[in-house]
Amino acid sequence: MSRIMETLTLGRVVGEVVDMFTPSVKMNVVYSSCNKQVSNGHEIMPSVIAAKPRVDIGGEDMRAAYTLIMTDPDYPSPSDPCLREHLHWMVTDIPGTTDVSFGREVVEYETPKPVVGIHRYVFLLFQQTRGRQTVRVPASRDNFNTRKFSQENSLGLPVAAVYFNAQRETAARRR
Predict the structure, then answer these.
(1) Is residue 151 part of a domain?
(2) Are 16 and 120 in contact (CB under 8 A)?
(3) Which residues are within 8 A (CB) of 80 and not within 5 positions of it... i.e. 6 or more apart?
(4) Cis peptide before 85 (omega within 30 of 0)
(5) Range of the structural domain that residue 159 is part of
(6) Residue 36: which CATH number?
(7) How far apart are CA 120 and CA 72, in angstroms?
(8) 172 in a domain, yes or no?
(9) What pLDDT was estimated at residue 140?
């Protein structure tokens, strides 16, 4: 198993959010406010993630199109994720070899605000099977289900994924 898949499995992203998949496209997620790159399982302070990140998509085919999903599988708290998953962001029709600004933002970026416990925030990239396609926008951010959404929109398994952890900042932790 690749190192990427190992960390996604240990972090329970594979299993709780998506099924096992083979990463085939490079995705780079960077929060510009402090040039912080997202790495699997690393913690990022909520003050850093207030604005949407830059997400660069690799791939070999500029004609390919992708859908990006950002979700919180630990909402509202990791011990009782009764509204699992919470959808924070969705961008569709992203051309390969570009970044998400070239796509169509169908669910506006919502700043993560963990209140209780350590939350995982997961970025998932799906290749659209029919190039530019209509992806049905979910009715609610709460109780989003990545697997179900992928099936309903014929997206298949992800081609890339990365996640980070965040928890509420206390006055003592801020600088």
Answers:
(1) yes
(2) no
(3) none
(4) yes
(5) 3-167
(6) 3.90.280.10
(7) 6
(8) no
(9) 94
Q: How many residues does the chain have?
A: 175
- Residues lower than pLDDT 50 in the chain: 174-175
Q: Identify the pLDDT of residue 61.
A: 76
Please report whether residue 104 resides in a domain: yes
Number of domains in the chain: 1
DSSP at 151 = H
Residue 36: Cβ-neighbour burial (10 angstroms; 0-12, 13-18, 19+): middle
CA distance 147 to 163: 17
Q: What confidence score (pLDDT) does residue 131 get?
A: 65
Count of CB atoms within 10 A of residue 92's CB? 24
Asked if residue 50 belongs to a domain, the reply is yes
CB 78 within 8 A of CB 118: yes
CA distance 59 to 167: 33
Beta strands in the chain (DSSP E): 27-31, 36-37, 54-57, 65-72, 86-95, 104-107, 119-127, 160-166
49: CB partners within 8 A, 6+ apart = 31, 111, 112, 121, 166
Biggest alpha carbon–alpha carbon distance for the chain: 50
